[in-house]
Amino acid sequence: MKLPFIEAGEIVTTHGVRGEMKVLTWLDSPEDLCDFDRCRIEGKEYRIESCRVQKTCNLLKVSGIDTMEAAQAMRGKIVELFREDMAEGVIFAAELLGMEVYAQGVLLGKIEDVLDYPGNQVYVVRGEHEYLIPAVKAFVLSTDLEANRMEVTVIEGMRSDEN
Question: What mean pLDDT do residues 100-128 have?
């Protein structure tokens, strides 16, 4: 299901005295957050004034948050990005949860989890059986967020209760 907002990270602390916030980014890389002009925090839209990478985090400055005290009040809050600001074709793990998965027209189940491994992600699909499907082109034939449907190819060994 296509989500209107994507969680990008959590504000973990402040930086300096002018309202900059340190964000622990949940995106593929911290640099990705710097590509956006706006964000949302607790349902309120903010214009991003500056964003820079510091190690594995971002230092984020948004409009209206101009003091260390105001930034401190944001600590622990989630930074969300607007889905409409993202490139077409980009799919996030949160959008896959609950998606129906089919193999040759037969419903296998729904995606219940997305596991991150060094080589690729793996979709945990549960229905009558549990399947672990690598998120690679060889096995994932199509993904339709609007229809909430994924087509896959299943091979021996993907079903977790197989011998």
Answer: 95
8 Å CB contact between 95 and 1:
yes
Task: 91-94: list long-range contacts, CB under 8 Å, 24+ apart.
Answer: 91/143, 91/145, 92/3, 92/6, 93/121, 94/3, 94/6, 94/7
Residue 116 three-state SS: strand
The contacts of residue 64 (CB under 8 Å, 6+ apart) are: 46, 70
Beta-sheet pairing, 106-116 with 130-134: unpaired
Per the structure block, which two tokens stand in for 110? 């729904």
Mean pLDDT score, 138-146: 94
pLDDT higher than threshold 70 for residue 163: no
Amino acid type, 163: N
Please answer whether residues 70 and 112 qualify as being in contact, where contact means their C-beta atoms are separated by less than 8 angstroms: no
Distance CA 84, CA 157 (A): 38
DSSP string, 44-103: EEEEEEEEEEETTEEEEEETT--SHHHHHTTTTPEEEEEGGGSPTT---HHHHTT-EEEE
